[in-house]
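Tutorial handout. Part one gives the primary structure; part two gives the three-dimensional structure as tokens.
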Amino acid sequence: MDLNQIVTLLNQVMDAIQTLEKDSTQADMDNAGAKSILLAKQYPIRGHCLVDKSDFEKKLYIGCLLAFCNSGLNKSMEENKIYHICRIIASYEQNIDLTEYIAQSLKINMKTMQSMIETFDSETILCFSVDMLILYMLEPNNIRRNSYETISDIFQFLQMSKNDVRKAAQIAKCIIEQDFEGLIGEISEKDSINYNCFLGYFPDNKYTTIVSSFVDIQHLEGNVLVANAQISNCHEYFDLSETVATSITFRNCVFVNIKGFRENEQLVIFDGCKFENNNFDTEDYVLIQGQNILMINTVFTDIHTSKNILNISDGKIRECKFVNCQGVDLPCTYLFELNNVEVSKCIFDNCTMVTIHHFRQYTTGGVFTIANGFVRECIFDKCIARGEATSHEQYATFEMQIVKAINTTVGENKFNNCCCYSDISRGVNVKSYILGLKNSNENGNEFNECSSHHYIDGGIRSNYKNYNIGEL
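Part two.
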């Protein structure tokens, strides 16, 4: 990577950073250091890569930062730069002596630089580059642009690849802008970067660990974030009862043809995830079963089940989408069985439930059943609940619903081209509703081109709107 490429890359990143204006006049070095030390002790950068390093590496790291960022046109260290360096030191040392580190920085020479190359591992070099970029980004804009060649020379000396430079620049940009979502977007299973080193740079961050795969997740403690993982063709359940984490968040993960999740005891969050192409032909198969589960902006596409797609209690489902989800040859059950769950602004598109063709006197089931919760501002489009039984069964009863609500409020939802019916029309009683209520309230729901079939001992079926809503 030549000098021009590095400078061009840095220009692109630096231009996106807003210049940080100072409201007060610059203090002298001693006063700035004293104030920064006191404040840094309260807000150390926890988990910094230096925490587990030797004293030699720590002094070399801080000394080089001070030397590189206190040279050229930058004649004196500004207070915010001193504060950042003190926060790094405070991550591993409470008795901060800046004079010792400044003395170390005055001894930096080519031999010291070579020692840094030989001593620092790749993780430490990346963290050093990020810290160096942060300090340069804290420069006034006119001085900062004159520092580009110095930065690029350092990158070349550190033998950093173009991708490493890009990563360091993007991470530093996210830290300066406090864009934690941007940092998450940088995480990839393909790179070997330990992003846990940068969690402490975000004071509002609630996570203790970030990973991009399921390897050893059961041993991780605290609030764990699994980001941008892609998991496919897993024919065993992810049994979350084996984990010790306080909470697990799956962010922007893709699950293709997996068996599912079950038995969680901690809070589990799926945020911006995708579930695709599940087709497990096992009896009583449930994709996700558990409690205390939160789903946000997650999409389920072409999911097949022999019992439930979701069987959840004590949770929330917001702004999710379920497309072409099917339950064929199901027992008398529902695709979604929820208890004490809040469902809002979700889309159920072409979700179908068909009961198994067994002899029985009473057949019930449907797409969605919920107890002790609420369903609000959702769209049910082309959803079907169909009951089947043996053709010789006489005087059987069928009660199907798209949504069955028990002790639940159902409001401001739209049902478009939905249908509940039985394949048998002779000698049976069918009493189905698009929305079936039991001790529940409904308001503001719309029904467009829906049909809910009623038969009385094989009589003529009815598809009128008065069967869209009924008491169970």
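Part three, for discussion. The mean pLDDT is 84. DSSP finds eleven helices and 33 strands in the chain.
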